[in-house]
Write a structure and sequence with these properties.
GMP Synthetase, Chain A, domain 3; three-stranded mixed sheet; FSCA_dom_sf; Fe-S_Maturation_MIP18; single chain; about 25% helix; DUF59 domain-containing protein; alpha+beta; globular; MIP18-like; 3 helices
């Protein structure tokens, strides 16, 4: 048994920082603040699974955005592998946006 404790919380924060560098091409707000990221899971092998959605099923970046998320998260030293799963359940709505995103878009 190893003595190393995986600080998944710190890794989770690093992942969130990376996610905040990825923007929806149609909205000048990052995908995290937009509420497109539903869950970030990290296991003891440093494998990351991200459950995310898109603003709509026919989003113009439906093919490229998940790949960008995977690549950027995989680029973190502590991450072994990253997988993105797209879901539309629940469907994305403006209610999922952070206050910061709503403010940025003049919705508050």
């Amino acid at each position: 048994m190893s003595d190393t404790v995986i600080d998944t919380e710190a890794l989770g924060e690093k992942i969130v920082r990376v996610l905040k560098t990825i923007y929806d091409p149609e909205i000048p707000v990052d995908i995290y603040e937009l509420g497109l990221i539903y869950d970030v899971l990290v296991n003891e092998d440093y494998d990351v699974k991200i459950l995310m959605t898109l603003t709509s099923p026919n989003c113009p970046v439906a093919e490229t955005l998940p790949l960008e998320v995977e690549e950027k998260v995989k680029s973190l030293d502590a991450v072994n592998n990253a997988e993105v799963e797209i879901t539309f359940d629940p469907p994305w709505s403006q209610d999922l946006m952070s206050e910061e995103a709503k403010l940025e878009l003049g919705m508050l």
